[in-house]
Amino acid sequence: MNPVPDIFRILPEVILTLTGVAVMFIDASLPSTWPRRMLGWVAAIGTVLALWASVWQFSLPEGTGFSGTVETSAFTIFFHVLICGIVLVALLLALDTLPEDSHHQGEYYALIVFGAVGMCLLTGAVELLVVFIALEISSISTYILAGYRKSTGRGPEAAIKYFLLGSFATAFLLYGVALIFGATGTTQIYEIAHLAPTAQNHSFVVAGMALMLVGILFKVSAAPFHVWTPDVYEGAPSPVVALLSTAPKAAAFALLIRVLYEMLPSLRDMWTPLLWAVAVLSMTVGNLAALRQENVKRMLAYSSIAHAGYLLAAFAGFGTSGIAAASFYTAAYAAMNVGIFAVITLVSGYDEKLPMIDDFRGLLYRSPLLGGLLIFFLASLVGIPFTGGFFGKFYSFSAAVNGGAVALAIIGLLNSGLAAAYYLRLTLVIAQHSPAKSDEEIAPAPQVGIAVGAALAFAVIATLILGIAPNEVLHAAENGALTLQAPPVQTTSPGLSAGQLPSQ
């Protein structure tokens, strides 16, 4: 069998990079008076091609490229497809909601695509220095996007807070990488997995793991590393939040799975109780804080902290079950969260003139479509059956129970009941008749364009499929878990490049 060209291992990233460069060149070539909306379609087409390339990678034998720094496997492809799908929906959402006269639209679309490059590379990296580079590519793009709406003070404030705290978190991760390198003499994940249990400076490995967890848990907005989340969600444009709350978190959770289950499984007795505590803290802090919010985006920000806790509960599961449950929950949360922010974008508008919960009163009567969709996504976040949120929580808590963390699963169920209070509060407001107002005071029904309609359709279909027929996605997540658990190859086989895994 002929060796696979290395470029095929990063084909989605290459396509996304070329797309971002094309968007920037076209933007610079167009007269300043011409509309930039077409650039969003260029970015969307490039993302579709990257999605196709991700699916095509299933035909490749599992293995690594570029001297064992990036990997292609069922695990990486699962998250590639998920991230490209989220980015596509975020681009479609922006096409119909960004004002024509908004500044630097070309840069907006290019930053989303370049951010996707970092996120995809992060899920496939098996070398810690590549992990750091991918994390920086993703982070810098999202820092800028968070402050895109410069006309309000909240936008730059969100970007500065996110940048400063994110820089500190990245420094923690990089210092952790340095300590692990000092203890093992390598930054290659497979080699670290073999050397870490017998490292002479074992305390360096433990300290390095702890510091890396700080950086990763910041990215997934798990408590106590969550303080940036409400302000960034409130200050960033809603289309950006739809991306920010899903795709970077999916990539960060993929990294967390790889670091814990593949690189440091020998420290399981240490990181399991640590994540147990973080999960309980995230669920409890997120839900209690969300109960007090009047701003919809801040409520959903604290809700996302709680959902990070639900997902982390799956890490109490053993091996394949924990990995598959965490991967499935990531997909389910991405589908319903992108959908709910798409509706909020349409209702509140780009300038977010209707940011409060009470502003959604009577939405079901002003716009039955958007009101019904918002209630549907809220039901999925609660975990109502026949939605993706139900099976996401079911698999996560089942993995915790199978791993012996029965108390953690019970705490998760109690927190789910607590979360229903603020989700149902918004649902009741949506379904209530508005008090009598003059024609000038009644907010007009939002218009749903073709692009944002397609984005909503994708989110609804994905949420329904994950809630009614989840077996295919769960099977893909399990296949990814099996490849992640496969032992690395120590010697080079005929027909395989150094560091390449054999086909399974």
Question: In a nutshell, what does this entry contain?
Answer:
With 504 residues, the protein is an all-alpha fold.
SSE topology:
Layout: H1 6-9, H2 11-29, H3 37-56, E1 63-65, E2 70-72, H4 74-97, H5 105-124, H6 128-146, H7 154-184, H8 189-195, H9 202-219, H10 229-235, H11 238-244, H12 247-263, H13 268-290, H14 296-312, H15 319-348, H16 363-366, H17 368-382, H18 388-402, H19 406-431, H20 450-468, H21 471-485
Antiparallel strand pairs: 1-2
Helix pairs in contact: 2-3, 2-5, 3-4, 3-5, 4-5, 4-11, 4-12, 4-15, 4-20, 4-21, 5-6, 5-12, 6-7, 7-9, 7-10, 9-12, 10-14, 11-15, 12-15, 13-14, 13-19, 14-15, 14-19, 15-17, 15-18, 15-20, 15-21, 17-19, 18-19, 18-20
Number of helices: 21
Helix fraction, binned, reads over 70%
What structural class do you assign from the helix and strand content?
mainly alpha
Q: What count of structural domains?
A: 1
Total DSSP E strands: 2
The SSE order reads HHHEEHHHHHHHHHHHHHHHHHH
Q: Main beta sheet: strand number and arrangement?
A: 2 strands, antiparallel
What's the shape?
globular
Provide the residue-averaged pLDDT. Answer: 89
- Approximately how much beta-strand content do the residues carry? under 5%
Q: What's the alpha carbon Rg, rounded to whole Å? A: 22 Å
Poorly predicted sequence stretches spanning 5 or more consecutive residues: 486-504
What distance separates the N and C termini? 14 Å
Biggest β-sheet: strands ordered side by side in the sheet:
1-2
